[in-house]
Design a protein that fits this description.
The complex is a heterodimer. By secondary structure, chain A is mainly alpha-helical. In chain A, about 70% of the residues lie in helices and about 5% in strands. Chain A contains 23 helices and seven strands. A five-stranded antiparallel β-sheet of chain A has the order 4-3-2-1-5. The radius of gyration of chain A is 31 Å and the shape is globular. The N and C termini of chain A lie far apart (about 90 Å). The model of chain B is unreliable at about 1-10 and about 20-30 (pLDDT under 50). By secondary structure, chain B is α/β, with parallel strands linked by helices. Classes of the chains: A mainly alpha, B alpha/beta. Chains A and B meet through helix 5, helix 10, helix 12, helix 15 and helix 16 of A and helix 2, strand 7, helix 7, helix 8 and helix 10 of B.
């Protein structure tokens, strides 16, 4: 089949070239034909042949090479049944818009049945990325040059080594030069060359350490010793990095716990209502985020920002509905409240399953929240969690302000401390109840908006957090917002310190046992209520 | 009737009883001619497992509808009897009893988790039902009444690590899983296999378990990253279940680990799991299954089109357990045709050796150990949530009920053909009921 195609191609070349070349002053068609021949080699049976074809394509200096390589990398370079090469512009639906790979001419929509994808595997993907990176090193865009230099760390082979070595001197940008030198040094180290090991000494980059580790196990004892010394020299730095990382992990887990618990600290802690549907209110907030992203397609960031007030409102309204329909009738009967709200939580879960879908929904993380903040080569802090940490602190400060500085806060504190007295002073206790519960529920909605960036948005979202939330509130001291903050953050840090050596399952158990023992000793938690409110 | 127990049995009473019995049997025979064949569907439609199982219920309903449009079976129509075990393991057993005893269904398609299958097992065995189980599982089981149309470990896990070692050149393995029976058994088998067959050293294997629905992967991912920095090519073998996958992959992407550095090969992540996640950062990570939606055959495109039309969702995806139900359903239908009846014992005999087309252009055969033959495919995640197939076994692999790599289980075989008819026959001492061996295998697991 392939031979036949090649023959046919040859015929086309011979027959077609003459008149076309005569008709057109610019020999564009011959260019197209070499392009076709190049693409033909890409459609090989074995991945090895495809790899060679990619190298050939790079050396051909064809101006469309980068575009083709990118399309191949994305799986959009395909072939029609009649042997034409096309680039698929959008491969999401059942029918795909395509354009001719050689001429760039739009060919309308084609069914995926009529197209064969030119497949690649991880090894080829690596090769393609490096190939594109090498092309991009010459790009006028400095950001592109930098990211390609990053990309080439650990990807250098013999051929690239020859290409890159002269480029190091030529590079205008300082960062690019350093990175390229490092990339070359990594290659040398992997080959057991002393020069590479010396250049990598003090480097924290994981790829550099992989290379040094390899050299340390190499045959040449002198180089191996030098590699071991180079590794040992950064050991102390790495330990500090690791400590910072663990602390960050802990704070970030803690911030999630705080967010989940702080709404509960109001409804349970201040009002004394055991609300088992608290998790489902968080779920509503997360679904609001999804809904906003559906309403504003293509603008996930804006949708996320708008979901903050929307999530608060939706959850607060749901909270009011729950309070009016169930909780107000069960005042002072904690056991019945617990059972009734547990029932509500099941109803809400199944409602979402039936109305929306039992499947998880995709909430997109906006560009500015993905990836990580690079501190140094070995330490980078993930951005989405940093945002959540900041958001948790903001919510906490906001709540503190409401409770301490507003009339509502004053009334809430008055009603919870002495309901009868507050009423006789003219405070409408029922209204305060509604508003407090709405506030707590709304904050749960905010937690849901934040969680949509970290975990699954699905009907089970709430269930996973309800136990942790109660744990944090009880540990921190019922009725105390500061307690919730300190308890959440410290439980997060303790958990993350324990996890590496105890494993995730055991770490969780140890934390639970610790809390049980702590509550035995101090039944009122970290920050017990003092004074008359405590007897309340 | 109950009042009659007090009287001495008269001859007249016995004859009338007999007559009634004969008439009843006759009536039943007549009823069989007209009544639809009942197909029980035992998948959770609520609770945590609804995410995975509800599509399987829809799949079986679609297959039943297609069969009815094609004229039913034995001239009778098929009728789906759907119950909801609500992701509650003991409830699975109750619902199975309800299906078999009250509804008197002829066959059951159902279950997802191993623990739910273990709950249903005694019920189907006691009431002599038929259960088709469509999900990859840990093996170490073969029941006379259960047909395992999902993959056994030798049809998924073992070929997957072979691929990593031979094609990718991996030398270090992080076995990461959710803490329950399937990951623990699979990892146990993999550890033994890697050490014995490939000579992988103890320090080159890292094992980590997390609770169900684990969402904070920061520490584990950074541990994996460090594990991969020690000089040898490293891969993660993931048996992480369900919901926990999304935060896991997110954390991988956020910490900048891509498939080129440390590829992750997953046994529980399919098209459906990927549809709830932004797949851009996952491109290149691997999954091992026996079917992918991207399989390029006409059978598969027909199935996908039918599924999209049936579900009315242009974005609907197909996955491996759906194909398993497709195969299982067709095998059962073929066995019913072959036996000429829906009688359970007749089907059990007839179905062994039945061969039906699968969706990847080959055939699946029911083996005497109630497992089927399957090709093993390795796919790489694409940015559109699909898998690009990069490798597949040259031929189909027969499912092995008892692993060859675990002590105790090694000597067992299952063969439900007469005269052996045994699910755990010990070839060393030649006895059926190798329950001691099964216990040994479990004891080995518990170590």
């Amino acid at each position: 089949m392939r031979r036949f195609l090649c023959l046919g191609l040859l015929c086309c070349l011979l027959l077609g070239l003459v008149p076309l070349a005569a008709a057109q002053p610019e020999p564009r068609s011959s260019n197209t034909d070499t392009g076709h021949a190049l693409l033909e080699t890409l459609d090989a049976d074995s991945y090895r042949d495809k790899g060679e074809a990619i190298t050939a394509l790079l050396q051909s200096d064809d101006e469309r090479a980068r575009e083709w390589l990118q399309a191949l990398l994305d799986g959009r370079l395909q072939r029609t049944d009649d042997g034409r090469f096309v680039v698929v512009l959008d491969n999401s639906g059942r029918n795909w818009p395509v354009e001719d790979a050689l001429t760039g001419e739009a060919l309308g929509e084609m069914s995926r049945r009529d197209l064969d994808r030119i497949g690649i595997n991880n090894a080829l993907r690596n090769q393609l990325r490096s190939a594109i990176a090498v092309v991009d090193l010459y790009s006028p865009n400095v950001e592109r040059r930098r990211s390609s230099a990053d990309r080439l760390l650990g990807e250098v082979d013999e051929e690239l080594f020859d290409t890159l070595t002269p480029l190091i001197e030529e590079a205008e940008d300082d960062y690019v030069r350093r990175r390229l030198a490092q990339a070359v040094a990594i290659y040398q180290t992997e080959n057991g060359e002393m020069a590479g090991v010396e250049a990598l000494s003090g480097s924290l980059h994981p790829r550099a350490r992989v290379a040094l580790n390899r050299a340390a196990n190499g045959d040449d004892p002198v180089v191996a010793d030098a590699a071991r010394a180079a590794l040992a020299s950064v050991e102390q730095k790495l330990k500090i990095n690791r400590g910072v990382e663990t602390l960050y992990f802990g704070l970030s887990l803690g911030s999630v716990l705080v967010l989940a618990a702080i709404g509960l600290a109001i409804t349970f802690g201040v009002m004394g209502v055991i609300n088992m549907a608290h998790g489902e209110l968080m779920m509503l907030g997360a679904y609001t985020t999804w809904m906003m992203q559906q309403l504003l397609p293509g603008q996930p960031g804006l949708a996320l920002v708008l979901s903050i007030p929307a999530g608060f409102l939706v959850a607060a309204l749901a909270g009011i509905a729950i309070e009016r329909s169930v909780i107000q009738f069960l005042k002072g009967r904690p056991l019945e409240t617990l059972l009734a709200t547990f029932g509500i939580s099941l109803i809400l879960q199944q409602l979402v399953r039936t109305v929306i879908s039992p499947l998880n929904r995709t909430v997109i993380t906006p560009e500015w929240m993905s990836g990580s903040l690079v501190i140094n080569d070995a330490l980078s802090l993930t951005l989405n969690r940093m945002f959540v940490l900041g958001f948790a602190l903001l919510v906490f400060v906001g709540l503190m302000l409401i409770m301490r500085r507003t009339r509502l806060g004053l009334e809430v504190r008055a009603v919870t401390q002495n309901r009868a007295m507050a009423r006789s002073m003219g405070i409408r206790a029922t209204r305060v109840d509604i508003l407090t519960f709405a506030l707590g529920s709304g904050v749960a909605g905010l937690a849901g908006v934040a969680l949509s960036q970290l975990t699954n948005v699905g009907p089970n979202l709430g269930q996973n957090y309800i136990i942790d939330s109660f744990m944090v509130v009880v540990f921190g001291g019922v009725g105390n917002l500061w307690g919730t903050l300190v308890a959440g953050l410290s439980l997060g840090v303790i958990n993350q310190i324990l996890e590496p050596w105890a494993g995730a399952v055991l770490a969780k158990i140890i934390v639970l046992v610790f809390i049980i023992l702590f509550i035995q000793k101090r039944p009122r938690g970290l920050f017990p209520q003092k004074g008359r409110a405590a007897e309340g | 009737m109950t009042t009659q127990y007090n009287r001495p049995l008269s001859r007249r009473f016995i004859t009338s009883l007999l007559a009634a019995a004969v008439m009843g049997a006759g009536a039943q025979a007549v009823a069989q001619e007209d009544d639809p064949i009942k197909v029980g569907i035992l998948h959770s439609l609520s609770g945590t497992m609804a995410i995975s199982e509800s599509t399987l219920k829809d799949t079986v309903e679609m297959l039943i509808e297609q069969q009815n449009e094609a004229g039913g079976l034995l001239g009778r129509q098929l009728e789906a009897v759907v119950v909801d075990p609500a992701s509650n393991w003991p409830l699975f057993a109750e619902r199975a009893r309800e299906l078999l005893a009250q509804e008197e269904v002829d066959v059951i398609f159902g279950n997802w988790t191993s623990v739910s299958r273990k709950a249903v097992l005694p019920v189907v065995e006691e009431l002599n039902g038929l259960l088709f189980y469509p999900v990859q599982y840990e093996g170490e089981e073969s029941s006379e009444n259960v047909f395992y149309t999902g993959a056994a470990p030798n049809q998924q896990a073992i070929p997957a690590v072979d691929y990593l070692i031979n094609e990718v050149g991996i030398e270090r393995f992080a076995l990461v899983g959710t803490d329950y029976v399937y990951p623990r058994t699979t990892n146990r088998i993999l550890e033994a296999y890697l050490k014995d067959e490939h000579g992988v050293a103890e320090e080159d294997i890292m094992v980590n378990y997390t609770p169900f629905g684990h969402s904070d992967w920061q520490n584990i991912v950074s541990e994996i990253r460090r594990f991969g920095e020690e000089g040898k090519p490293t891969a993660v073998v993931s048996t992480i279940n369900g919901d926990a996958n999304v935060p896991f992959y997110r954390e991988l992407a956020n910490q900048g680990i891509d498939a080129a550095d440390i590829p992750v090969i997953a046994f529980s992540v399919g098209e459906q799991e990927l549809s709830g996640i932004d797949t851009g950062p996952l491109v290149g990570h691997l999954a091992a299954w026996n079917y992918f939606m991207s399989v390029d055959t006409d059978e598969n495109y027909d199935f996908i089109d039918a599924w999209i039309d049936w579900s009315g969702d242009e974005e609907a995806v197909t996955n491996d357990p759906m194909e398993a139900h497709y195969i299982g359903f067709n095998m059962w239908a073929e066995a019913v045709r072959k036996a000429g009846t829906t009688d359970v014992d007749a089907i059990k005999d007839a179905i062994i050796g039945v061969t039906v087309p699968n969706l990847s252009g080959g055939y699946a055969a029911m083996m005497p150990n109630h497992h089927i033959t399957k090709p093993v495919l390795i796919g790489e995640v694409q940015d559109n949530g699909q898998f690009d197939i990069v490798w597949q076994t040259p031929s189909t692999v027969a499912g092995d009920a008892w692993s060859d790599y675990l002590p105790g289980s090694r000597d067992l075989i299952a063969d439900w053909r007469k005269p052996l008819a045994c699910g755990n026959f010990n070839v060393v001492n030649g006895t059926c009921g190798g329950s001691t061996a099964a216990e040994e295998a479990e004891a080995a697991l518990a170590e």
